[in-house]
Amino acid sequence: MAERLEAKHSGKALLAARKVEYPESADPVEVCYDRGWTDGLPVTPPTDERVLAMLKGTRRRPDEVIGRIPPYLADCTVEKVAINAVMAGCKPEYMPVLLAALEAALEPLFTLHGVLATTYFSSPVLIVNGPVAKRIGMNSGINALGQGNRANATIGRALNLIVLNVGGGRPGEADRSTLGAPSKYTLCFAEDESDPEWEPLSVARGFPRGASTVTLFQGHGPEAFVDQKSRTPEALTRSLAMSLVKIGHPKLVQSARAVLVLSPEHYAVYREAGWNRKRIERALYEATIRPGAELVAGAGGVGEGVPASRANEMVPKFHEDGLMVVRAGGKAGLFSAILPGWLAGRNRLELQPVTRQIRDD
Amino acid sequence: MWMRDPTAETSAVKRARRTPPKSLVGLTIGLFDIGKTRTPEFLDRVEKRFNEKGLKTKRVGKPTNAKVATPENLQKIASEVDVVLIGLSD
Fold it and tell me: Is B12 at the interface with chain A, CB within 8 A?
């Protein structure tokens, strides 16, 4: 009731987005579909009550412009973020994460326009670190990459809805993805930080322990990795390398990055041997270096491959910083997941994952 | 009733109609009989005019004007024709 009264009396003053009227007989969910405001799933209609409630999740002013959203570079205010957050199903307390994610997405190194427009499978993958994840009830455990958790599901979805609605990035128009991927609806999860010996992704990326951050990666997935028999870190590394080199194509190199989501049982193999993040990432980088002769175009009777001039080199699959390991998942299962990155990184600096601290305001 | 616009507000608030095709040549025109008396007479005339111009037509419709077309009915029509002309006769 309080929200309804507030909407009636202060909605006009606080909200600047134009009103879209519809007849009382119409189903507002269907109105959203008719106007092309959805990703194909139903959205929650953005009424004044709901938008005002969403804005309570941040102290930032509704008219503050966060940035210009590709592809059509329209200004996006905090209010437009809130409207799309309502539609995605977010709770107000998710707003700081969503705002930080949007700011990360708009940093030039993230190349959001390209991620949207590519014929490849990629879209923003969101990885949340720090106390905010627990505070808003994000899932880093069983089924972390799957369905069922409101924060995981809706924060990622809201970011994609902002690109669709504010930026105008529609599939078949500016979004040219040949096949797309289910992760284009949402792929957002928290890292499991329960082991104090593990260096969280946020710390590895230069933020202090205890800071809440969101890292955006240009990727899709997940792709399954199964190894139920390797019991030493060396064996497991060789095994993981066999799957990691397949990203895109086994003979394509130094373009895609990757996130390896290490499950608790696989992590235990490393942990028991005293391997930390840096050692795992370095070992995986080295294990994915292969003789160029096997990778040149035409080798093995396969047309795809690197130029013949690299036949005598040892060729790494990734750039040196091209792999990020993240811990998540349920306690049972010697399965991990690979989130393959966009194939557009012809040089290391062309595009990179971006991490932003989540502001308390 | 209203809700707030989630877009960049670069298009008119009134929902734009789908752009009509530039030409009907090569398209199949569905002539939709809504089920009212004497609709066929009207559509017969329209069909004749279209056919004289060399345009392809197909008669479609729903059994009665007393009920809305079912989704199955509409889906079938959408799969069989490119554009639809509805004969609202009285």
Answer: no
